[in-house]
Amino acid sequence: MTRKKVLVTGGAGFVGSHLCDRLLKEDNEVFCLDNFFTGQKKNIVHLLDNPFFELIRHDVTAPFFIEADEIYNLACPASPIHYQYNAIKTMKTSVMGAINMLGLAKRIKAKILQASTSEVYGDPLVHPQSESYWGHVNPIGERSCYDEGKRSAETLFVNYHKQNQVKIKIIRIFNTYGPRMHPNDGRVVSNFIVQALQNNDITIYGEGQQTRSFQYVDDLVEGMVGMMASPDSFTGPVNIGNPNEFTILELAEKIIQLTGSKSSIINQPLPPDDPMMRQPDISLAKKELSWHPKIELEEGLEKTIAYFRKVI
Ligand code: NAD
Ligand code: UDP
Predict the structure, then answer these.
(1) Which of 3, 31, 105, 193 has fewest C-beta within 10 Å?
(2) Helix/strand/coil (H, E, C) string of 22-37?
(3) How open is the CA angle 268-141-83, to the nearest 5 degrees?
(4) What is the whole-number distance in angstroms between the Cα of residue 211 and the centre of ligand 2?
């Protein structure tokens, strides 16, 4: 049997490690590349004995050469506290990482998928967000290193496709949660679960009336693999997310209920440019990929809470 060779950048991170698991289950050979900025060896340690798994410490801002059939480009910190820690580095990771991985894809004729984000829509003026919406992003704001980095990466992908016929795939991922998020990741689901399990105050930024639509990680991985397998003519961008929308206050109350926590809810200042609402329109993914999310919030939270009970 010929195994496909698949490169996953950011493979030791939260989403990347689940993707590596899935690709190995399907008998691929997986090269997991990571600089361990936010990734953890713990996420992939169970794969190290697998002869078809290779771990490579590398930073995508530097060129990298390997023979592969497919590339999933996930390398980039995703949590606001981590991507704002070194904003210039975040932008370099998105832009130079895209150039290096697209250059590699061009040279070795690999198909390449970009993990883009709902953040390309910024603080949206259109609701729900469909792929045709151009977004509402502050180019000099706190989030711009991430948002504009990802928007630039999309531009690079589209132009490598037009100019060099590179086979590209772009997915716009909406808020995703699940086991293997770092306990100090700083994103809302992991923060609230860790706070609830430790009976600490639950920190709602602002009044908690802002909304997000939360997707369980297994649904995202299914969408990623489905997108990679779709016909070459379908490049995206395509939204991959769960349209069920909740306020942040509702999320906090649900997590308190599911953990049986004694935590109280406290309010802290809302960070600048924090989007007020976010919900994916997934008609395109349904039509082109026959994909839709299957795991609803309560079920996904229960699995995630069980994971955090073990690690903290
Ligand atoms: P994560 O921070 O857990 O994973 C990112 C991984 O990339 C980490 O392992 C990190 O060490 C690695 N990395 C960062 N900079 C690198 C560099 N310069 N070179 C090599 N490796 C580098 O985040 P995640 O939630 O797993 O996100 C994975 C991808 O999906 C990211 O590109 C993110 O922008 C995108 N995404 C995620 C979400 C979400 O809700 N999880 C939403 C939208 C988009
Ligand atoms: N948030 C919050 N408390 C926290 C962490 C986040 O109220 O401890 C809010 C945050 O202000 C935002 C929402 O939850 O409105 C989602 O934040 P996250 O960082 O998870 O994702 P993003 O803002 O990038 O969608």
Answers:
(1) 3
(2) HHHHCCCEEEEEECCC
(3) 75
(4) 9
> Which atom of ligand 2 lies at the shortest distance from residue 118's CA?
25
Nearest CA to ligand 1 atom 13: 75
What single DSSP character describes residue 281?
A: -
Probe residue for ligand 1, chosen from 32, 37, 73 as the CB with the greatest number of ligand atoms within 8 Å: 37
Residue-wise burial string across 82-117, b where 16 or more C-beta atoms lie within 10 A, e elsewhere: bbbeeeebbbbbbbbbbbbbbbbbbebebbbbbbbb
**CATH classification code of 5-176+215-243+280-294:** 3.40.50.720
Choose, from 146, 160, 177, 216, the residue flagged as catalytic.
146
Give the separation between CA 92 and CA 199, rounded to whole angstroms: 39
Residues 6+ apart with CB under 8 A from 141: 272, 273
User: Does residue 146 have an active-site annotation?
Assistant: yes
Q: Kindly identify the ligand whose nearest atom is closest to the C-alpha of 211.
A: 2
| pLDDT value for 2 | 85
Q: What is the DSSP string of 147-162?
A: HHHHHHHHHHHHHHHH
Over the chain, what is the mean pLDDT? 97
Confidence check: pLDDT of 1 > 90: no
Which residue minimizes the CA distance to atom 6 of ligand 2?
188
Ligand 1 centroid–CA 90 distance in Å is 10
pTM of the entire structure?
A: 0.98
Interatomic CA distance for residues 59 and 62, integer angstroms: 6
